[in-house]
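[Q] Does anyone have a clean structure-token version of this?
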Amino acid sequence: MTVAYEIGLLKKYETSLVHEVKRNLLDGMLWGLKLRGCAISSEEINDLLKVQRFK
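[A] Here you go.
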């Protein structure tokens, strides 16, 4: 999901969004993956948001 975000596959969902909404978009997608069984920890989600400069 992070790679899709980085290469711009999600641009149509964030066209005129402010920084906080973009952060919530990525955060929500990562938590959606986690809650549906993807092996990603809360710490990894926070780390990915830091890498994207959202935290």
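[Q] Thanks! Anything notable?
[A] The chain has a mean pLDDT of 83.
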